[in-house]
C-alpha cells in the first residue's frame, strides 16, 4: 500500500507491504541506515527513534503506522553536514562509544531524556539508559558523556 | 525475524473496529501499542491474518476520572500518559509505582495498559495491580458490551475471558477510600524485566489504626495474577505489626502457585514472596497512616 | 603534537555518531537478494526427507538450496586451528558442514537456504519447507557423554572425545605427599554467549565483467576469509575482496570460520549472478553463532604450612559443542592461565574435550582464561581459610618474583610456543588495589560494622594474568598522500577497539603529524593483502608494532627526501606539524605532501635501488605473547532476603605495559568488566534434556544494563614488554577474565557462607541458584 512518512522533516512516499517494520523501512527503503537493528523484539534499543519526540523501538511498529507522525532518526541530530551536535560531541569527548552499533539508539533515547531532564544526576542517567543495551563500553563513558552534555 | 503477511485495517472509530473484528473473528487481532504483539509476530509465534489497528481510533485514547472518582482508561491510552498524569499519581499511586517497573520508557511510550492486560502474561505487573485495585473491564463487541471484574478476566497464561468478537475497550479503576495505603515491590533480574516475584498491597486503616480492609495481589506467582485472599483476610482487624505481616506472608506463600522460569525456580519464587509480602505490606501500612 | 600515550578522542567517532558509518547490513546493491535459512529444530536427528517444493514455488523466491544442490562444494569446513604439539595428545577433527545432509548435530544447524527478493519472503518460504526427522538422543551432559553406551554426536568416531591433552611438569604426587595441606574440589563453569549488538552478516557480489568477487563480512579476520573463499570457490586470491567494514562488536565468535553462511552466500552470489545478503537475526544468533565457557574441573592444590603452593593437579572436561574447527584454543588457555601470577612448582593438568549436541564452542573474550583463573583463585581462597591466612597474603606469598622474568611455565600455550611470561611485577598491582579498595579498613571496620547493622557486605580480591599479543604476525602499510595526510592500512579487522585512533597515534608519533591526519583502513583485503586477525588481545601489540615499524621507515624516507631537497644532512632536519624544515630555519619548511610529490618524480633519472613515494610496509611477528596482569577488587552488598547484589565499589589495577591511549584502554577494561559481571551473575544459557535452548532472546538471556554495571575505578602500573618495540601488552580481555572468581569470593564473604560450611564452586550464579546453594547449610 502507498503511504507517506515524514522523517527528519522530509516527506517520503513509498509503496510498501503493511508488515514492513519501521526499522526496515528507515534503513532499506529510504536509506537511513544510521538506525540499527539489534534484536527485533524490543529489548536492545539499537533501533530507537523519536516518534513525535518520544523514543520508541522502530522494530515494534509497522512503517504504515507512522503516517501522520513526525519521525526523527540519528541522521537528524547534527546541525549540518560534517558536524556534531552537543550530545554527539560529548559522546566523542568522553569516549562514549566503541563499536558504535548501539550508539544511534542511545543518542535518540538521551536526546529525549535531556530535553525533559536538562540537569540529571548519574543515577537518573543510568536509569534512563537502562533500556538500551551496549556490549562494548560497560556504560561508564556513556554516562559520562550524557553528564558532560548536560553541563554544556 | 520478520512478521508473516497480514491484512491491515486502521479504522478511525470504535464501531468500525468492532465491526471488523466481528467480520474476521479469530483471524483478526486488535493492534494497540504493539509492544507484546509485534515481538510475537516478529518471532512468528503470532501470525494473525488480519490486524485491526486501533491507533487511529482517537476516542480510545482516553484517561479521566469520572464523577465517582473512578479512573477510566481507554484501550489506546499509553502507559506514558498514565504515568505522567499528576492526578493519577495522587489518587492511585500504586498504579504509577508499578508502572515504573514495566519495561522501559521506550516501550511505555507506545505500549498501552489495555494491550498489556489482554496479553495476560502472569509475570506482568499490571494484571496483579488490577486485581489489587479491584478494576473492572468494559468489554465491547459490535452488538453489545459487558463489564467484568478483573479477577474474572484472567483465565491462565496468555488466556483471558475475552470472546472472539470482544475488545477490552476501557479499564475502570475505582477510587481508593480514605485511609488507604498501597505499595508495590518486585524482584526482577534487571530493571524492566518481568518480575520473578511482584507484590501489590492495598491496606486501609480504620479510625483507631486497625486494618479494616486488605488486598494482596502477586505477579509471577501462578498461571494468572494471584490474589492472596487468606493472607489479606488475616490482616483485617490487626494493628499491622511486623508479626501480622509475617503471618500474612506465610499464608500468601501457601496460597500462590509459582510456575518457575529460566530465571527462578518455583521454590525461589515462593521464598521471594515470603520476603516481599511483608516489605510491601509495611510500605502500604506506612502510607495508610 | 605528541599523541602517543595521551587520552585522545577517536578518529572513527564522527561518522559513527552521525549514523554514517558503514556496517554490513548497510550495504545496498542493485538487484540484491536476501537469504533466510531453514535450520534444524532438533539437537540431534537424522534428516529422513526434505521437501522444498512449496518454498521454491512461492512468488519472489529465486532459489532454495539444499546439501544435495551443493554438489562437490559440500565439504566440511577447514580446521582453523590445528592441535598443539603436545606429546601423546589425541585430537579428533570433526568440522562443521555448510548444510545438513543426513544428520543434524545441534539446534539451529542450517539445513536449507532460501534466496528471495526480500528477507520477508525468504522467511515465508522457510516456513513452507517440510522436513522429516528421526530424532536421536541429545548429548548435553559432559560426564554422561563419556559414559559407556552414550549417544554419539559423531557416530563414525565411536566416542564423544574430541581431544585429550595432558601437560605436566614437576612431580605433583611427590608435592602432594610432602604437603601440609591438600584441598580438592569440583568447579563448574557454564555456557554463555558473546552477544555483540550487531549479529553476523554476509553480503556477496560477483562481478562477471571484472571477474571478481566482493564479500562484506562481519568477520574479525578478513584476510583469512579471503584466502579460504578463494580456495573453495576455485578463484585466485586477487579475485576476491573481503571487506570487514565497521563491525558492531566481535568478542571472539566473529573470529570463528568458516561459518556455513560464509561459505554459502558467496557461492550463491556467483551461481545466481546477483548480489546476495544474509543478516543473522537475533534468534538465529543464539543458535548459529558460537558460544563458550562450559567446563567441569576436578582440581587439587598442595601447599606447605606457610601457604606456599607446592603443586596443582587439575582434570577437566571441556564442552566443544558439535564440531571442533577452532581446535583447542579454549581449553589450552584454561590449562595455561590457571597458573596465574604464581609459582607452581609441580603442575599436572589433563583435559578431555567433549563433543555435545550444542552450538560450537570457540573463543569468547577471555577464551578459557576465566576458567583457569576461577579454579586457581578459588583454590587459594579455600587454602587461605584452612591455613588462617589473609587472602591477599596467600597470593603475595606465591607471586612470581620480579627478578624471575622471563618466567618459563613449562607448558605449551595456544600459540604452540612454550608459555613464558615476558615480564611482570605483581606486588605493586596488589598493593595499589588493596589501597584503592580500602582493604584493611573494610576488613577491620566496615564489614564488622555492617554485619552488626544487619547488612551483608562482602569484598572480593583476585589476581590474574592474561596472555596477549600472540603471533604469528600482522603487517601495516604507511604512505604519505600528496595531500599531506598519512594513510595506514592493516589486514586485521576492527570491532570497536579504536584501531583508527590507536594505530594513528603510533604513526603520528613517528611522522610528526596530527592524529587527525592519519587515515587508518582496517579490514579491507584490497587495501592490505596479508594478515591474520583480531583476537587474543593482539591488535595493538602485533599490528600496532607493525605500524610503528612501517612509520619509522617512512620517517627515514621523509628525512632522506627532505635532505636532498634542502641539500643538508638528515640530522639537521626537524620533522614536525606535517612539515620538515632545517633546524633554526622554521620559515623555510616543506610539507609532507610536497615531499611525497618529490619522491615520485615524473621526469629525470632515478637513483638505482630507490622506490617511488614515501611509503613502507612492515611486518611484526612476536616470538611469543606478552603477558599482562592485574587485580580486581570489589565491594558488594547483598539483599539477604532476595539475594540481589549491589556493587558498591569496583577497582581494577592493571599492567598492560606501555599505554597507547588511556581513554581507549579504560573503555576496554570497562567493557570487559561489564561482560564479566554478565558472565558471573546474569548470563547463562539454559538447555533442556533434548538440547533445546530455553532462553534464546534478549528478554531471557540477560546482558547487563547501565544499572547493573557499577562505576569502576581504574589504576595502572607499567611493566613494558621486551617483546615488541612499543612495550605494549594487550588489554582486550583483562576486564572480563577474573570477574567470576571475584564474585564467588565476594558472595561468600558478604553472606558469611564459610561459617555455614557453604562454598561457591560454580559460575554463573544468578540469585535463584545462589538461594538454592545457601539452603544447603
TrEMBL record, chain A:
The scientific name of the source species is: Falsiroseomonas tokyonensis
- The entry's keywords: 2Fe-2S, Iron, Iron-sulfur, Metal-binding, Oxidoreductase
Q: Which Pfam families does this chain map to?
A: Fer2, Fer2_2
Q: Which InterPro entries match?
A: 2Fe-2S-bd, 2Fe-2S_ferredoxin-type, 2Fe2S_fd_BS, Diverse_Oxidoreductases
Protein's recorded name: (2Fe-2S)-binding protein
Does Oxidoreductase show up as a keyword for this record? Answer: yes
Domain 2Fe-2S ferredoxin-type, by residue range, is 1-77
Automatic annotation (TrEMBL), chain B:
Is Flavoprotein among the key words of this record?
Answer: yes
Annotated organism of origin: Falsiroseomonas tokyonensis
- Segments forming domain FAD-binding PCMH-type: 1-178
* Record-given protein name: FAD binding domain-containing protein
Any transmembrane segments, and where?
Answer: none
Note whether Flavoprotein occurs among the keywords. yes
Question: Keywords, A to Z?
Answer: FAD, Flavoprotein, Oxidoreductase
InterPro entries per UniProt: CO_DH_flav_C, Diverse_Substr_Oxidored, FAD-bd_PCMH, Mopterin_DH_FAD-bd
UniProtKB/TrEMBL annotation, chain C:
Keyword Lipid metabolism found: no
Claim: ATP-binding is one of the keywords in the record: no
What does the UniProt keyword field contain? Molybdenum
Q: Which InterPro entries does the entry link to?
A: Ald_Oxase/Xan_DH_a/b, Ald_Oxase/xanthine_DH-like, AldOxase/xan_DH_MoCoBD1, AldOxase/xan_DH_MoCoBD2
Please state every residue range assigned to the domain named Aldehyde oxidase/xanthine dehydrogenase a/b hammerhead.
Answer: 18-137
PANTHER family to which the protein is assigned, alphabetical: ALDEHYDE OXIDASE 1-RELATED (PTHR11908:SF132), XANTHINE DEHYDROGENASE (PTHR11908)
This one is known as Molybdopterin cofactor-binding domain-containing protein
